[in-house]
Amino acid sequence: MSKIRVAVVGAGAIGGAHLRAYAALADACQIVGIADINLAAAQSKAEVFGAQPFGDYEEMFDVCRPDAVSICTPPNLHLPIATAAAERGIACLCEKPPARTVAETEALVAAFARANVPLQFAFCHRFHTPVKQAQALIAAGRLGRIIQIYNRFGFRFERAVSSWFTDPTVAGGGVLMDTLVHSIDIFRALAGEVVGVSAMVSTTLPVTVEDSASIQVVSQQGAIGSLICSWVTPVSEAEIRIWGTEGEAIIDYTQPGGLRYKLASDTTWTDMPFEEPDRFVQQAAAFVTSVREGTPPVIGGADGIAVMRVIENAYQAARSNGAAIAL
Ligand SMILES: NC(=O)c1ccc[n+]([C@@H]2O[C@H](COP(=O)([O-])OP(=O)(O)OC[C@H]3O[C@@H](n4cnc5c(N)ncnc54)[C@H](O)[C@@H]3O)[C@@H](O)[C@H]2O)c1
To answer: If we measure between CA atoms, which residue out of 93, 109, 135 comes closest to residue 285?
Structure first.
């Protein structure tokens, strides 16, 4: 089978992660173009990855004619860039958040449905091996009925004040939109569709968006989630805890090793070390496979819309002092 010709729009922080991931899959894909409005950024990455640099993504699409593209720009650009790709029949791996609103996300998803071209949203934690192991434990019924899930992503985000991340017209929101979007995707993958949400947010930095958020969600199956994130706490934390009627599982990204679990009948914890590549490589591999084989993406348009509905309702709940909202 011939290699997929891939391109990347946005040669910033996450663009680098996508490029490294595609480079690790050199048997299945070839990086042909890198576009950034900052041409120097595209050029320096292009030198490293052996691709052609562009200052304009539409020019890159028309000159390079890639089969697939990663969109790694700020969220206000996801919809226009994705639409330009879909109109040219280019498959897309679009960074999170899918867009700034549900309406934009729906328009983005509709463009790919019209073009009948694969669209995958880059909820990379789904490809973290311990998260996949947790999904498998749950699917096999080992943890029993899932009762509660806790997830916290907390760190001190040095770029927050001085970057587009705290400009709501570009980012669509603050940490709830940017970081907690991952938590909602993880919760849906582990516990099922979200049917209710309440939320509280706070702002500590001199910015107009929230820089800390705590939300409560409940799934169709009755599992409760406490999802917490902050850009202003200095000790980096990334943790998921899952409690079921038959056991408990923990994923602590900051510790070596993988998933740990203890079942009702166990006297000790079981560790599940893993050797698979990191989540960005696994995410890119799933996308490239979907493009090469024409199989549905692991995380498709409906997932992006569902996550954005939770986000929008969480903002509405926060504006109503945390009042719970049924989705
Ligand atoms: N999955 C993750 O864990 C993760 C982590 C970080 C960021 N992200 C997401 O990735 C996206 C980018 O974030 P980042 O941290 O890489 O931001 P960044 O600011 O580091 O990089 C964004 C790049 O996009 C470029 N750009 C801006 N306008 C453009 C245009 N019109 N055409 C081409 N390029 C343009 C900028 O010049 C910059 O180089 C955001 O949606 C963000 O939420 C995801």
So the answer is: 93
Token pair 């690790």: residue: 24
Q: Quote the radius of gyration of the chain (alpha carbons, Å).
A: 20
Q: Classify 216 as helix, strand or coil.
A: strand
Say yes or no: CB of residue 122 within 6 Å of ligand 1. yes
Per-residue pLDDT of 151-173, as tens digits, reads 999 999 999 999 999 999 999 99
Three-state SS at 30: strand
| Residue 124 in contact with ligand 1 by CB distance below 6 A | yes
The tens digit of pLDDT for each residue in 91-121 reads 999 999 999 999 999 999 999 999 999 999 9
Q: Tell me whether strands 68-71 and 194-202 are parallel, antiparallel or unpaired.
A: unpaired
For the chain, what percentages of helix, strand and coil (3-state, to nearest 5) are there?
Answer: 40, 30, 30
| 9 CB within 6 A, ligand 1 | yes
Which of the listed CATH numbers 3.30.565.10, 1.10.150.530, 3.40.50.720, 3.55.10.10 matches domain 4-124+281-299? 3.40.50.720
